[in-house]
Amino acid sequence: MKFFKRIFTQPAYLVGLVSFAWWLLWLPTIPWTDDARFYVPSAIAIAQWFENILTGLWHGDYSAWSQSVIDNVFAQNREHPPVAKYVMALGWLFFHHWLPVASDIVACRLAVGLLWAGFCSLLFVAIRPLWQPTAALFAVAFINTLPRFFFDAHAETLDAPVAMFLFAATYFTWSAWENPGRKNLLLATFSFALALGTKLNAPFFLLGCFFYYVLVHPPYHKNLSIRWAPIPWVAVCLIGVAPLVTWFLWPWLWTDTTVRLADYLRFHMRHYPIYFYYAGQNYRDTVAPWTAPMVMLFLTTPLVHLLVAALGSLRPLWHGFSRLPGVGTVDNALWSQFAQRADLRFLLFVLVQFFVQLFAPSLPHVPYYGGVKLIAPVFGLLAVLAGYGFFCLHNEWENFVTNTKVRQFASYGFATWLVVPGLLGLVAYHHRWLSYYNEWVGGVRGAATAGFERQYYDLAYPALVEALQKYLPHGGNVALVPNGKEYVSYIERWQHDGVLSSGVRATDETQADLIILSHERRWQDYPTLRARLRTHTLLESYTIADVPLFSIYHVEKN
Amino acid sequence: MVKTMLELAKKMPRSVGFILLTALCLIRFGFSFLPLGKLPTEDIQQAIHALGGIPPEQRNSTWILVWPPHYSHLAEQLPKDLMASDALPQEQSQARRYSHITMLAPRNTPTPVELRETTEVALQEVGELSIRSFVFPESKRLLFDLRSEISKTQIQMETPEQKLLCITPRPDGGFMCPGRPEWNYLGPTQLMVNGQPWPCVWAHPISGEQLTINLGAQRLGDTIEIESALSDDAVNTPQGAAVDVRIEIDGQPAGNLTHANQTGVRVLKISTTANKLSTVKLYVTTNNDARRHFGLNLRLTTGITR
Known about the structure:
The complex is a heterodimer of chains A (558) and B (306). Chain A is α/β, with parallel strands linked by helices and 558 residues long. Chain A has 23 helices and 9 strands.
């Protein structure tokens, strides 16, 4: 009871609750992604293992801890660590297995949604004491109105969870850096371990910490040798303890640790190529230019959001820049101001982590693909910068509007106005958020014309199953091109959920009654397929701003 | 009112700037969703008529690009015998199937980035539409490319005793051989050759078996070009065996290429009788398949085109 009372009375809890409600509002129409095929079965296997452990404790049966059982459970999708899958597994247990209120995918998504609520609360908690409550609320509104990242936060993938854990690691690490108390060190270590146990974006966080350390405590010469400032305790915890915690969290590594860890690293260092259509060129055999993450971020984030965050980054950027050799001196006035203000140090830490995460996928031979999901961790950091950007704008109002109540009212109104473009993006691109492009490029129309992919690949739009049911109510053969393999499992799922006739079968083009063409430029066959299929009867095209995403053709049988 | 606004702008320049910027963004956003103006039917009919006038000898090498993508629906109205799409085919610059591009678009539509290598040779304005013609620089005309048309081939593993058809489609194109290890497939890949990624078709040979790639009946050009390479890793294998590639046209040996355990791409060019319909088969073999990470390309090409 006390907990529920706190939820409604503590602002941070309330922020989490409202964010979850907002997240939930959009859930029913979010398409499935091909990632469900990998992560959901793996999460289910883990959930069943959890259950076996629990029942085993009751009956004194500890076979769930045997190496063969562990290997069997964790061999699935072993190229990715398990923490996000634990989250999904808990969702599956609660919302699908024990309380059967949701399908397996939705149950996994609900758990990610709860994580989202926690993330929004933490964002509020991190910003509120540094600046204004309005700035903290603005940051939360900012993150909740980013169409692409908000999609990732609804998907059963690892991208949003790693972004959330890395945000927690950023906040707690900075807190521990400033105040190396036991609680802060523990939280920093644990949150970083969770991030390490989620996805490969996490290790780069240490690089960001190193850059920050060098900027704040530059090495200096003394007696003809280079001296370094003492290493902060939190760095010791992050490097020495967090990987051990991750090891404990990932039973797959409990045996043959070095071999399996090497396999994991080798998989990612020699990642198989993935098609990526970018700036009018298709990349696969060669990777996209190193600027691709930056360009994609610039084109797929609402412009006003970007500029508020840019405003918030000016000051830490200048402070950080002044520390570079030849630009400023260690004891300049700018730096002394920085040394006195904790919020500026936090901003600098966030900014450094932002750049590290943004450029991590630009390493040589790393394939960049699929919009901005590979740089998901930057969005939480952008929200902090936007919070400070808004705070700077809000300060201007102090001089102009003297009445506190009016100022507060105006401030909330101003904050709302600034997020309207993002909000409109959510509404207009509803359930097609991975097709969102900002005002700079002219939306998806402008982006498709400029040579960018109009959608992330192989999405199972709810409109697709509706169309299949409409045109094949009693069953029939359907070919999904250019890449039908993902849709075979979607069709099975839809049939299992009872929303698609059991007589619908995925076949090749020669046997098909219907052909569904997904307009994805990254496939080499797409231009020819588009040219060839137009000789059939076009039944319907599913579009966004008149740009087709998928088209349905009827095949006339002679 | 104006005075108050100016005063506001003076005292809170950034906030006012952001208020205006947001308004501009909303307007721009609204424009990006404006319904497309309906193009006059008369103009469309005239454009269709004009496209119908492409000379027959140029039709096979002409691609109609309906542009921009939000006008893609125009493609449905064009004559069925034309290759018309809202995207350009992805072809290699040394040999193209479509060297002429005709772009149908509303007037004043900017040239798509994909056409950056082309030269514009003609412009015809038909009411609110324009028909623009582009040509790629001179190149050989591509008639068949194994890497992009692997789905049209038949693959099999042969021993004197049995034949195994490799018919399981792979997600990234090509086929796997059922019941065989995962490296036993034929499909697009890239190998590191001389430290550079080299796009090719994965064709790992197997000791004691013959990998057969049957291209079926093909209209030949004047050349068949075969390239082959072992990956840099494979070449570093001590005593790595050579890989043999043999080509047959209409059942007759037409050439062979022995790829020793050496780095680099080897090329075999065979002159053929243009326009002849022939069955083309390729055989890949080795004595020892240890780390024979082998790739090849095969292209049928003809003359120089414009």
